[in-house]
Amino acid sequence: MTPVPTNDNPFAGDNSGIQQRETAARWALRIGSYIVVIITLAIMLHIFIKGAPVVFRSQWPFVNTQFLTELPATLHVIEDQQGNHIETDVNGADAIKKKLGDNFRAEKTISYSGGGILGPIVGTALLVVVSVGVALFLGVACAIYLSEYAKHGKFLEMVRLAILNLAGVPSVVFGLFGLGAFVLTAPTFVDVPADRSVFSIPLGFTTLSFEGWDTCVLSGGFTLAFVILPVIITASEQCLQAVPQGFRETSMALGATRWQTIRYSVLPFATPGILTSSILGIARAAGETAPIMFTAALAFKDKLPWQKDLPPLPADASIFAHWEQSVARFFGIFTESVQALPYHIYTLAAKIPQNEYAERAQYGSVFVFLVLVASLAASSVMLRKRLRAKYRW
Amino acid sequence: MSADSTAQSTPPPVVQVRDMDFSYGASKALFDINLKVEYHRVTALIGPSGCGKSTLLRCINRMNDRVPSARVTKGEVLVKGKNIHDADVDLTQLRKQVGMVFQKSNPFPKSIYENVAYGLRIHGEKNKSVLDEAVERSLSHAALWEELKDRLHANALALSGGQQQRLCIARAIATVPDVLLMDEPCSALDPISTLKIEELMHQLAKEFTVVIVTHNMQQAVRVSDYTAFLHLGKLVEFAPTEELFTNPREKLTESYLRGTFS
Amino acid sequence: MNSLPTPSRPPLRSVLLRSRKHTILGVDPQKLIKYFFGSNASVAIIVLVLIMVFLLREGIDFLPTYQRELQTYRRAGLEFCDIIDQPLQRNQALSSSLRQAVSASLETLSKPARDRRDAAFLLKRQVEDKTARPRESLTQALEKTPPAPEQIEVFRRELAEASAAAAKALEYPAVFSAAEREQLQREFSALTPEVTDLPPLVQKLVADFSAKDREARTKFAALVTAQEEFEEATEPLQEVVDELKAKALETKEKAVEFEVLETNRKRLLEAAATETDPKEKASLTKEAEESVSEAVDLEESIKEITGRTAELREQVEKYAVVIEKAAADLPKDAGTGAARTLVNDVREGIPVHAREMRAAAGKLEGWRWDKPVSIFSVIGAFFFGTQWITNSSWQDFFGFVPLLTGSLVIAAIAILIATPVSVVAAIYTNQFASEREKEMIKPVIEFIQAIPSVVLGFIGISLVGNLIKDVSEWSWLQWVPGFPIQERLNMFNAGCLLAFMAVPTMFSLSEDALNNVPRAYIDASDALGATKLQTVFRVIVPAGISGILSAILLGLGRVVGETMVVLLVAGNRIAIPDFSAGPGVIFHPAHTLTGIIAQELGEVSRGSSHWQALFMVGIVLFAISLLVNWCARAVARRFEPHKA
User: Fold this and answer.
1) Does residue A220 sit in the same domain as residue A125?
2) Which of C54, C598, C606 is facing A172, going by the closest CB pair?
3) What is the rounded distance in angstroms from the CA atom of residue B243 to the CA atom of residue C440?
4) Nearest CA in chain C to B63
5) Domain extent for A82
6) What is the pTM of this model?
């Protein structure tokens, strides 16, 4: 009645090929995942191979300083009778043509492809500063509320839903919003309100007019701020949540108020995390194109934002006048429209024909841009890992 | 059951653990375990938490394999006379014949029918009538058939906790294993559900060999034929249940049973 | 007792016990702080509402504006002309098919001769290209006054050398015999700028071709005549239509001008009404009165157009008869199988076309110029309109369908590619990969998220487009529908890149979903003797399916909302993709909802119907994104058994 064990192996595997199927499926899955990895690396490699030679040099100082420190310009390619091609800028073109004389054969101009990319780099930096400033202020405050004050209820649910939905809004819709809200409607102080002003409040010495800020760094920065707001809120809230509950309870038990608890027992421990995560926001803000298309970016500009023509001061101008002008110059930076790296790349990719001369500027810009954005993202990830190891509660 | 009758019965044990040491990486969890589990008997493993009773149980179907660095460092485990660590042992076949029920009921988020049929399906059974029959048989064994026969295709997660655990038992016996391992199957259940499962256990012992881990000594008394007492990774005493509870040989066992344990 | 505070320490105690309830304007500062943060928390809600408000503010006027425009379109008689003109477009498609059939047929005879001629021309141009520099020098020297014979001689020699070298380096195709090759090389070596006549052998090749072509034309005379007949048939009708169109356009322009003046006048009057200074008021009123212009008598001009209905109908009838005859005259056989298919298509297409034309002519009578355009028909014209035409001299149409189809087809391609890849990668990384593999795969895939979309768009233009085109020309892949492709920038290209963009989102969320599958399920499956693969595909994946589905939906949201990649890569042709091409349609260019906004908004003036239409598209996009988000949440909740 009881089965008597024999010497046979009662647990012998059947040879129906299960093992082979397992291995085959495992390999199929592995290949599937590696395809993504390989494609990513291939794209990076392609950009590196084509872009690095533009930015780096084999001789001292090993970096193409011209490409990083000059403004974009039109590239002139001059061909002489011997079939040599000389690449130069507009001034160089005249000189060379004069020098070549009869030997001159043809001249080609390629827009945006000469010079360097200082203008776009500066513009992107300004946009990032404004947007991250605004987004950090709003985002961290929102996160503090969600993590420290909010009680379960309708309001909290609505806020969470809104954050989720905000994260899903297409970037071009943010662009439309920025155009409608900041470029055309935001309040500003003017002497005489423009026609398009929605309404204006006279304040005596000046008028608060809802007529918008025009396309400028401020408009673009604010628009980008709302694009990255969900990222910042979510990351900040995670950092606040990671501070152990015990810290708060200890503080409250000592009779501290809610705000004192937050100020002294929560924020100090969450701040490093919040800042590192916000680097991810910087990377996102720097990479977006559509929101700044109508709010801040220009295809071409031959001046840096602070090189604005202001009326020259008389020789005997007071220190105050100098000071006033410097202030005007400083604030002027934010009311100028700028070139921005992503928009510059869009211009280079879409508005000029593909040819060997355009490639230099294209791949150079893409390479620099990608290195900037990728190193920001990577450093955020790395710092976060390190922080996590450091603050292990 | 008395100790004499066991000693006289000729058939070899279905599970035999010989001089086994087991360790997780550097830390040793079980020391020199010797254990014999007879056919169609209920064997209970008792002991304070952390004594290694669950680990021992999981050695029998090699569930510990999934923990990296966990391994048997000495001795052997024989199931149906075969050393289960031999190279020619197919793990899926072993586990098909050594079923297991977990502490917390864990039905799949599928229908009741699919839960019970799962084991047969993965072992290649496609015939609908065979599956139907197996589902009915297993559910009847687990005393669930009458309750559930009208809603076999309802989601298993809609069942009550006790029903879920019995469903898990049905799922485990659907492949007709020789041994059924139960890892504190009642610890998460209310007294009534516990009672039902304990009743079930006697029924199950008629067809299967049951090894049950429990922290509840009364339960061990109620359901088991043999009891093993483990402490700090060592098998302190292994004897027929009655004997162990009424007349423990070891001092340690006695103090544990009396609850004067430090 | 000893440990009790001694009486010498009350200051600290009293400090600690002092109530710290200050108030600011009667409000507890703690509350103020809370409200401050609370109001910041609502910023997300406020922004969402503001987005809606500003989109609506700029976009909602679109419907009345477009209604007015369509009204004018009707009243000026443009719609009347389009009744005939729209179906008449079909004529072009038919005649182009016929032309193709004719040339394919002619080629059966003339192709070798033509190939030889074309090859000779190509060779000649290659030589000329290579010797362009010395030739230019020589030409300049020749034109110079006074001529410098020595210089000319130098240049001439240089050119001769260059030509000889170039002619020698040429690769002569096999269509030429050895003797011909030699002669061509000789002739090309002797090319000079003064001689404009073709070299003798090339001339002969040209003549050969003409002879063959004539011969072919006689052979396929029936086909050729039918084609010519068909093409000429449209002329009288087109003439009438064009006349009417000109008239309608004139009326429309007048009407628009009148409207502008009228609006201006109204504004002046309004300003006058609110003006307090009586002098200003008087001048404004005067200005307004002066600007009163004569209203266009639409009825009068529409009568001129509708008055010719009978003539138009007659012409349509004539046209229909002529083309039907042409269809009957079409010969059964043509030069090649392909040509025969084309001819057959045309033979079947013509009666359909004729029927359409007659039906259109029938509609002319029922058309009323003063029938008002209802707001519902405007909504229909936007959401179901099949034409997006802007900056047209005839009439702007803002039809949403071409953009929506483009967006949807691209999104479908992207999701179809991205879903298997990211789900497979998630399953592999989560269940099979070793720790080291995980540490390699996860950061790389997450890194994709950091790549700005404009960079991917650029990659699409510079790398992927060429890659797809090259691959599509491989001969062993010609069974793929749509190969070889015409356009580098097309929906498939955009779909691939968007798939790449969507992978990190879908991968991370799917992996989370798999990670959240309770350990107990895996234990149970393992204990029953399931293999790893069985556990994964029968337990883990089904249990995580809700998360995976919601990941796919969120990926879809990202893909539909993406702008830069589609703007750069989709090819930007505003037309409904030609689905009759079968699956090969994915290699056609298209335009998208997001792309159109990015491309056109910068170039339109604020408040114009075009501007408003773009904001309307924005509203729809916004609605789609909310909908997708909602669906993703609903799906995640719907199948969340283990959290129940």
Assistant:
1) yes
2) C598
3) 59
4) C527
5) 66-115
6) 0.84
